[in-house]
Amino acid sequence: MASRAVELKNVGFETGGLWLLRGVSAEVDVGQTVAIIGPSGAGKSTLISLINLMRTPTEGEIWVLGQEVRAWPVRELRQRVGMVFQSPVIFPGSVRDNVLFGLELHRRPPRDVAELLQMVDLPAHLADHAAEDLSGGQKSRVALARTLAMEPDILLLDEVTAALDVHAKREVESTLLRLKRELGKTMLWVTHDLDQARRVADEVWFVAGGRLVERGTPAEIFNEPRSEALRSFLAEGGEVRS
Amino acid sequence: MSYVSLSFTVLFVALSIALSLWLRLGVERDIVVAAVRAAVQLIVIGYILKLVFASHRLVFIVLMVALIIAVAAWNARGRAKGIPGAFWRIACGLVVTEILTQAVLVGFGVIPFQARYVITTSGMIVGNSMVAAGLLMNRLRREVENGRNEIMAILALGGTPRQAMYPRLVQAIRAGMIPTIDSTKTTGLVQLPGMMTGQIIAGQDPVQAVRYQLMILFCILAGSAVTSIVIGFLTYPTLFNRYQQLREDVLT
Ligand SMILES: Nc1ncnc2c1ncn2[C@@H]1O[C@H](COP(=O)(O)OP(=O)(O)OP(=O)(O)O)[C@@H](O)[C@H]1O
Ligand SMILES: [Mg+2]
User: Fold this and answer.
1) Short-list A204, A188, A199, CA closest to A31
2) For tag attachment on chain B, is the N or C end more exposed, with fewer CB atoms within 10 Å?
């Protein structure tokens, strides 16, 4: 199997006459964690949504595990490339229903819900609660657990810890890093939390104005930023608006 | 009834206009347009039906029914803004409904295969199905607009458009059927159905009129179900593209 998990070749995405992304070329090796940082509205969410074909690239190609995204059977691609949305989606029903939702869609055997909840630092007794009644941070972890239950090879994470307190955030981080260490999962992890990017990433991509402006190791990106855009972004602590 | 006695009822129109002016309801123009349209449409239809009934030619029956369906589909399409190909899908649903109901009515000898029966029953059944189609389309739009995030989440888990849409489609189909079911429940209690009233005024035995009315009610019930289901299942796939994405260029 290819050692490249994801390869972006001059990717652009246009909608309504507007290019939200342009000229993005990069690759992610199997087992690598890439943190994607950049100002709000930069195109980070757009970028990862191309990788599981929730959006179709307007130009360029995206190769995932050895095949162009449009050549994959969609159902299979999206099972192997799991995505957690920026705003968590909760389905009607219990936490258990929610966590097993994806498996159910594919008639795959259910998994141990307590174990999945533990992975995202939620107590097992929540399993039978109505998912609608959970707090925002709990909902985002249920959504993450639902994607983890699918055992994808590649994880697309969009601000998955944004709504969590320090403790829960660390738990989720350590779960994801364990999955990477033990099972070789590949991750593209969008985050506004620069310290988190430092902690989890093998490589950091800085996206701004629809372009991949800079990429490098966390040390390179945070200690020796080359572009003016990245320098001012870091100077503002990652809070600049584009 | 002569045209002279009919002309007295124009007083009702005048009364409505006077009320609208007096209370500043601002609907007097619409009342005039509605009254004139109703008069012209019905009088023209009356003469056309007279011709068709006299000729006994199959082609006229088919043409009349096609015209009814085309107008109904065009009308219901107005409720389906942003849904591509809505006219043809609605027309298809109405055609299936028409064929099914007439096959049963004529096939089992409930009504004779004559223009007088086929065209009138078709008009009633298609007219009601048109309303069901409009409600269905309207609800389908809302279901997709309000459920966008959930639909996307199901697709992102590798679910098919059908899996993502099924519960919403069911709601839309129900929305198409419920008014018909409800009005069937209270029929005869609140108001006498139009056809029955007409037959009784024309001198028919009320019990005979009731039988015809029941037949029509059952056809309308089945019609709203068939129409809603056919159109619902024909329409939802157009909201997605071949990569199982919710199309952004529709429903906006
Ligand atoms: N369907 C769409 N049509 C037009 N513009 C869109 C559409 N979706 C997103 N955009 C725009 O594209 C830009 C990039 O959006 P995107 O969600 O990828 O940003 P982001 O980097 O994830 O931002 P954030 O950090 O706030 O989540 C934004 O300016 C957004 O308004
Ligand atoms: Mg985003």
Assistant:
1) A188
2) N
Residue with tokens 């995405």, as numbered in its chain: A13
Tell me if ipTM is over 0.95: no
Q: What is the CA radius of gyration of chain B?
A: 21
| Closest C-alpha residue for ligand 1 atom 29 | A41
- Cβ of B149 and A79 within 8 Å? no
3-class secondary structure, B235: helix
CB atoms within 10 A of CB B30: 12
CA B216 to chain CA mean position, Å? 14
**Rounded CA separation A143/A159 (Å):** 12
- Ranges of each domain in chain A: 32-43+75-235
pTM, full prediction: 0.88
Q: Is the sign of the CA dihedral B247, A22, A52, A94 positive or negative?
A: negative
Residue B111's identity, in one-letter code, is: I
All structural domains of chain B with their residue ranges: 1-55, 57-239
Exposure of B3 by Cβ count < 10 A (0-12 exposed, 13-18 middle, 19+ buried)?
A: exposed
**Predicted confidence (pLDDT) per residue in A57-82, tens digit:** 999 999 999 999 999 999 999 999 99
Q: Does A13 touch chain B (CB under 8 A)?
A: no
Question: May I ask the CATH architecture of the domain A32-43+75-235?
Answer: 3-Layer(aba) Sandwich (3.40)
